[in-house]
Amino acid sequence: MELGPNVTVLQDDDCTTYLVGTAHISEKSVREVRETIEAVRPDSVCVELCKTRYQAILDENRWKKLDIFQILKQKKVLFVLANLALAAYQRRLGEKLGVKPGAELKEAIDAANDMGSEIVLVDRDIQATLKRTWSNLSLWNRLKLISGLFGGAGEEEEITEEELEKLKDRDNISEMMKEFAKELPQIKEPLIDERDQFLISAIEDAPGSVKVAVVGAGHVEGMIANRGVGADRNALSVIPPRSVWVPLLKWLIPSLILIAFYWGYQNKPEGTLAQLIQAWVIPNAIGAAVLTAIAGAKPLSVIVATIASPITSLNPTIGAGMVVGLVEAWLRKPTVEDAEKLGTDVTTLRGMYRNPFSRVLIVATLATLGSALGAWIGMSLVFTHL
Predict the structure, then answer these.
(1) CA-CA-CA-CA dihedral for 76, 82, 86, 91, to nearest 10
(2) Do 20 and 39 have their domain in common?
(3) Which of 76-90, 254-268, 274-288, 360-374 comes out lowest in average pLDDT?
(4) Structural domain that includes position 135
(5) Is the pTM higher than 0.85?
(6) Domain boundary residue, one of 210, 241, 272
């Protein structure tokens, strides 16, 4: 039996697993998946999907189910932007090659149905993966990650099928993962290492004596290294609770500022309290207003950012970004049609700004960042007056 160059055969005592390492936007991967499944006629086909992603890959209208107001109220703006950024990056590359992102996974599902094989979803739930990854990052690193993914939105980078296939080479993948670990170690562990363990463990537990597993090429080496080790998949799916210090630190700046105001009022010459308030208000107002304007917000949203930032910076449960985002959403009134267009619009910088849905997310994000920068500057100026 002749198998494709990206198929690794894993032989155990009573089970044979054909591990197909794919690129998620490669036409060759789509063909190789189909050919492997038809050749070996497996009892089960394991796909690198969780239930949520499985449903999403079969539902092309999933974007229209997003509720902009709930996203803002639940403070999931950066979380949703990260999802959109990753989807946009894969879609841009896929469009250049005429392949939809995840086409090889959809082909694996279709081929399994054609062969009468059982479909087994072997990936960790996407929410657990993203939240475990997200929890490892500071606000600054979250913004860097999103900006890095969206950074190519305005670039017309050329990538050929041949170049893409080279990326699937085991040595190239290994080197890429090493570089990834150096640049973003906080992301690599939950996004790659933990899923390597989860995937191979779930595949080993899948039913049947002949299996085909379809996974991204970047996971193959790590999965092989974890063969037979076993993994506590429940433990790997737990979202770590936030440290008790996190909410306390959020209130640290407001508490210090209010103490400074009181101390200035009680112990300093007349007029000092006014100076302290100005030192706090002006940077907060300017920082939020400027970045909100850069985001292309409506004038009323810029005014709201100017007023809200000095106040919300003293109450971390609200946040300027949420307030400004809600105002911007009320003004722009994103529709279901706007949400449906997100998948294509976010692939370019112009599209991101043109789509009312993504524009609201950008405005809320930059308002949050501007307010945070203003708060740090304001705190420094307040204490210089004491």
Answers:
(1) 60
(2) yes
(3) 76-90
(4) 7-241
(5) no
(6) 241
